[in-house]
């Protein structure tokens, strides 16, 4: 039973997911520290007193809506999201995309996934242009690259 459970953890990437959750929780503390200690003091100077919009209410009869709490949550989300995005960009470098592979199409069966150096089509086995037609089966075409 232990072996089956271990195989499940490895096969379903549950272990990797658990590690990602732990690292994400630790990163959350870093992001919150940057936001609370560095960015929010600057935002507090640049914006009006938070109490003015956080305590804003709309009263519709007996219904009391508090849009100020939503505004505050949206502002916090945008700031924390921006900091998390910048931290991610700083630590995870994007790998350059590979250039698209050049291919050619077979003029007989019109399959478009042939290697440009191919002498025969792997789909219909037709002789392609530029390849000698009188080679025995399995013979290699001499390279013209010097």
From TrEMBL:
Membrane topology qualifier: Multi-pass membrane protein
Statement: the UniProt record of this protein carries the keyword Transferase: no
UniProt-annotated location(s): Membrane
One Pfam family here: MscL
GO-annotated cellular components: membrane
UniProt KW keywords: Membrane, Transmembrane, Transmembrane helix
A GO MF label: mechanosensitive monoatomic ion channel activity
Main location (coarse class): membrane
Entry's transmembrane regions: 63-85
Keyword Cytoplasm carried by entry: no
Protein name in the entry: Large-conductance mechanosensitive channel
Record organism: Roseisolibacter agri
């Amino acid at each position: 039973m232990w072996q089956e459970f271990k195989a499940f953890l490895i096969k379903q990437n549950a272990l990797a997911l658990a590690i990602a959750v732990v690292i994400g929780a630790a990163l959350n503390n870093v992001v919150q520290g940057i936001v609370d200690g560095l960015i929010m003091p600057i935002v507090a100077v640049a914006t009006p007193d938070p109490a003015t919009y956080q305590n804003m209410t709309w009263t519709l009869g007996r219904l009391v809506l508090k849009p100020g709490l939503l505004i505050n949550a949206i502002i916090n989300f945008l700031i924390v999201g921006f900091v998390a995005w910048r931290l991610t960009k700083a630590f995870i470098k994007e790998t350059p995309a590979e250039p698209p592979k050049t291919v050619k199409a077979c003029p007989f069966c019109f399959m478009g996934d042939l290697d440009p150096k191919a002498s025969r089509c792997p789909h219909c086995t037709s002789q392609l242009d530029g390849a000698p037609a009188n080679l025995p089966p399995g013979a290699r075409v001499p390279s013209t690259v010097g």
